[in-house]
Amino acid sequence: MTSDPAVPRDSPFRSGTSPRDEAPQFVLPLVVRIERAAPPARTDALETAARAVLTLLADERALGDGEWAEAVRDWQDARIRKVVRRARGAEWRRAEALPGITVTGKSAEVRVFPPVPLDGWPKDLARLQVSGTDLDDPEPPVEAGPSAPVIWLNPDLGMSAGKAMAQAGHGAQLAWWELSEEERTAWREAGFPLAVRTAAADRWRELTASGLPVVRDAGFTEIAPGSCTVVAEHPALR
User: How far apart are CA 49 and CA 102, in angstroms?
Assistant: First the structure.
C-alpha cells in the first residue's frame, strides 16, 4: 500500500508533542444540517461526514495546483483537526453560500469546507454552535456487509454525535492515505461506500491489534488524550 507522499509519517492524531505542533495549525470545518422538525439519524450523519471528508480529499480543487490544495497541504502537515458545527434554516443557507461541498446521505446533509487557520474561521461558520449535535438512530443500524469499508467506533467511549462525526472523518482519512492510487480511484468511482458501526468489545480488541489504521485522539475535546477512538477497516487493507 502507498501513503500520500505529502503527508508526514508521524501521526497527526497522536497525543504529546510532535513536529506537527510547530507548523501553522489549520482545521477542517464540517457543518451538519439539523432542522428541528427533521434531524438526521445519528449513524447516517456519521457516515455522511466520513464521505464528506473523502470527497474533499479527492476533489480536483484539493489536489496539485487546485485552489484549495495549499490549504489542504498545510492542514495535513499539522495536527489533523476537524470540527463539526450545526446549522439550520438561514444559518444553513449562509453556510451553503461559502466555498465547499455538500454531501447528502439518507437523512443527513453535511457540508465540508477547505481547511482554515485555527483562529481564522469565516464569520458565517464561526458563529455556528458546536454543541447540540446529539442525534439518535430511530432504528438500530443493520449489520455492515462483508465487503464494505467500515469505520469502527470504540464501544467504551461515549462521544457526542459531533465528536463521533469528526472521528469517523479521521478514520476515513487514514484509510484513504493507506490506499494505492488504483484503490482510491475505485473507491471514489463507487461513491465512497462505507459504514460506521460500534464494535463489540471482543471485536474491538481484535481490531486494535490487527494493524489496521487506528485513530488515537489528541484529547482537545471530550475524551482523554491518547484514547483510541476508531479503527478503519477497508477491504484493501485487510
Answer: 10
* Residues 195-207 as b or e (16 or more Cβ within 10 Å = b): bbbbbeeeebeeb
Q: Tens digit of pLDDT for each residue in 98-141? A: 999 999 999 999 999 999 999 999 999 999 998 766 799 999 99
Question: What b-and-e string marks burial along 118-148, b requiring 16 or more CB atoms within 10 Å of the CB?
Answer: eeebeebbeebeeeebebeeeeebeebeeee
Do strands 26-33 and 82-87 pair parallel, antiparallel, or not at all (unpaired)?
Answer: parallel
Distance of CA 83 to the CA centre of its chain: 9
- Residue 36 DSSP symbol: T
This prediction's pTM = 0.89
Spatial distance between the Cα atoms of 89 and 78, rounded to a whole number of angstroms: 34
